[in-house]
Design goal:
6 strands, 3-stranded antiparallel β-sheet, alpha+beta
Length: 153
């Protein structure tokens, strides 16, 4: 190999490394705006709801199968965790703290009663309701916000 080709190969190798690094940075940045960590609770949240109405079984599966921000231990939030995102003073239709955004009022929780029925939280009026989960949710549907972590986890 001639000594004149060596600098050209080094330049090409350097260019390839730069492009690979830029691609990795772009991929990481694409997910950066999709999650938010609540410093007061240590919980990480999906910033947007899942985008479609689901029954409880589908919502639970959605969170359990989610990989986002390099994390795969997502779950449905507890009722109290969703209540912590509600801000009655807000003047928008669904009163979620920033940067959380939901496109429908009812959001599923992972909290259940002794019969196995799941709680939903409504971000329109700040209330909760219980819904049967047997048989796929008996036609009751809602949105999903997934969470992970928390203080001490």
């Amino acid at each position: 190999m001639s000594s004149k080709m060596l600098p050209a190969r080094r330049a090409v190798s350097l260019l390839i490394l730069i492009l690979l690094f830029a691609g990795v940075q772009l991929a990481a940045g694409q997910e950066a705006g999709k999650t938010w960590e609540d410093a007061s609770t240590g919980l990480m949240w999906t910033v947007e709801d899942n985008g479609v109405d689901l029954n409880w079984n589908q919502a639970n599966a959605h969170c359990e199968e989610l990989t986002l921000g390099g994390q795969s231990d997502w779950r449905l939030p507890k009722l109290e965790e969703l209540e912590g995102l509600y801000d009655r003073s807000l003047k928008k239709q669904y009163k979620t703290r920033e940067p959380i955004n939901v496109q429908a009022g009812n959001v599923w929780t992972g909290s259940k009663n002794t019969l196995g029925d799941a709680w939903m939280f409504n971000f329109g009026y700040g209330g909760s309701s219980i819904s049967p989960t047997g048989g796929g949710g008996c036609g009751v549907v809602g949105r999903t916000l997934c969470t992970r972590g928390g203080k001490g986890k």
